[in-house]
């Protein structure tokens, strides 16, 4: 059975197999070496993630993952008293929850390589534009949905994205546009808390919040709606995670292929290659 | 444990998690519902695939895949007496090998949905241009490789692609350019054989060879080097496979989420949602 690398996180993980996604790029890099397994839960914070922990990482697994990325915080950092309040987790609880997740994984496997990833920076202007766009979209969709099946109307767009937008507007309505539900400053505090926690418990971390802001124009270059990632933003996550996997002794280049490379197979005696090399 | 969809095939499967890849698109569509597992083996034909069958699909598995795509033929159809001769498999053997693969999978699980995919069409001109490019690339790489680490020099290109090109040229040298190693006509015969076999044994098939040629300019629109797929070519495979999965009762839209959607979680009583819905 192939070893696994699990990507555990919120929507930024859930969307990581879309066009240009960092999860798909990892799956490609570890092809024939390890399976990259998607466990992304849009909208989740660390508090809700704890409910999934024992299901996704059963303590008695005979083959626990060789590595796991833990990528939460974008929702924990939603502001109290604003439209996304229900996702808010106080910063001390966020740290405590990350610790619980890591300790559980270490119990599953003391050799598992664990990487905490901080939330990306937030572009408040981008979030506002997204809320406005969602509103106009919602109105248009409402006009149409009595006339024809919504699924036909939205053939040309990502249905999941539509669902999120409709949910968002129906939950928050007009208020969604008035006050930002996340700020870059507060998300930065969660990012620091994530990096500190990783240091305290001795696991790797990617400070994505800081890394992205090193590049001019990060707001549009890396973020599609002020929060989620563009293909360029995905590339940053991929590069940072693969760098850490390489440091941690999990370089794909150094892992053996599962079966012979085709050039090693003698067409007249194929059995030979397969007898020698079947992992 | 999450159900699995396995993608079993040659390089066109192995590369299916690259930018715009059909495998990644499937993984995204089945996110939170099934794991899409990559089992692609560049350069392999159906004869060599048989050696992997019992390793990848152990007959005694308690949780066999719910669906498998079988995507071989591009290498089987390599011409006898040309540079890729070692990959050639006679057409009757190709059919017989496909049958063996399907019968093995049916033994693993009689309810598994199986989709045979034909090789894509071949653009001989594209293959020739690729061989020429490979030659000039090989010469350049040789000049540089004594001066600096190859891995630094090729930072800007896909190292796997380089490896294949170097292998290709070192194996076949000058001859690679003289005669086509594959023709569209012969590959079309393998495609027909694949579709026939699927009908005979009662499994689904995608006639990719015919489907792609319905579009004007398929040679460059769908093929990057006369054989492998562009993002547009990948999109065709994705659309055709998802259409069959939908017909076969495996529509992602109709499969339940593994855990509650975040909007179903009551922030004051999150336990409630998780008690009700944990698959």
Features:
SGNH_hydro_sf (chains A, B), 5 strands, five-stranded parallel β-sheet, alpha/beta, 279 residues, Iah1-like (chains A, B), GDSL (chains A, B), homodimer, 2 domains, hydrolase activity, acting on ester bonds (chains A, B), Rossmann fold
Write structural notes for this entry:
- The structure is a homodimer of 279-residue chains.
- The model of chain A is unreliable at 144-160 (pLDDT under 50).
- Chain A is globular, with a radius of gyration of 21 Å.
- In chain A, helix 4 links the parallel strand 3 (67-71) and strand 4.
- The first copy, chain A, has two domains: 4-122 and 182-276, Rossmann fold (3-Layer(aba) Sandwich); 124-181, no CATH class.
- The first copy, chain A, has helices at 11-14, 22-29, 46-56, 91-108, 124-145, 150-153, 159-172, 184-201, 208-213, 218-221, 231-247, 270-276; strands spanning 4-9, 35-40, 67-71, 113-117, 204-206.
- The first copy, chain A, is built from twelve helices and five strands.
- Chain A has a five-stranded parallel sheet with strand order 2-1-3-4-5, sandwiched between helices.
- The first copy, chain A, is of the alpha/beta class and 279 residues long.
- Chain A binds chain B through residues 14-15, 17-21, 23-25, 27-28, 31-32, 35, 37-38, 40-44, 47-48, 51-52, 55, 85-87, 167, 171, 259, 261-263, 265, 267, 270-271, 274, 278, and chain B through 14-15, 17-21, 23-25, 27-28, 31-32, 35, 37-38, 40-44, 47-48, 51-52, 55, 85-87, 167, 171, 231, 259, 261-263, 265, 267, 270-271, 274, 278.
């Amino acid at each position: 059975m192939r070893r696994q690398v699990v990507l555990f996180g919120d929507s930024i993980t859930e969307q990581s197999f879309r066009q240009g996604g960092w999860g798909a790029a990892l799956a490609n890099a570890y092809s024939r070496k390890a399976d990259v397994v998607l466990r992304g839960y849009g909208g989740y914070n660390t508090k809700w993630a704890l409910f999934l922990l024992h299901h996704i990482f059963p303590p008695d697994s005979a083959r626990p993952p060789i590595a796991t990325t833990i990528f939460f915080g974008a929702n924990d950092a939603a502001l109290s008293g604003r439209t996304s309040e229900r996702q808010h987790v106080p910063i001390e609880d966020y740290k405590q929850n990350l610790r619980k997740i890591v300790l559980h994984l270490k119990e599953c496997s003391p050799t598992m390589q664990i990487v905490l990833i901080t939330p990306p920076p937030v572009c408040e202007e981008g979030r506002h534009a997204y809320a406005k766009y969602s509103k106009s979209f919602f109105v248009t969709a409402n006009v149409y949905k009595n006339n024809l099946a919504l699924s036909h109307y939205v053939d040309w767009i990502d249905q999941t994205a539509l669902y999120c937008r409709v949910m968002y507007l129906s939950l928050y309505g007009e208020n969604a546009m008035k006050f930002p539900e996340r700020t870059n400053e507060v998300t930065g505090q969660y990012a620091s808390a994530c990096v500190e926690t990783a240091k305290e418990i001795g696991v790797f971390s990617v400070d994505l919040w800081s890394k992205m802001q090193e590049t001019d124009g990060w707001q549009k270059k890396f973020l599609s709606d002020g929060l989620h990632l563009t293909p360029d933003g995905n590339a940053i996550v991929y590069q940072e995670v693969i760098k850490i996997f390489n440091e941690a002794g999990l370089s794909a280049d150094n892992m053996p292929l599962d079966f012979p490379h085709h050039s090693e197979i003698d067409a007249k005696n194929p059995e030979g290659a397969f007898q020698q090399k079947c992992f």
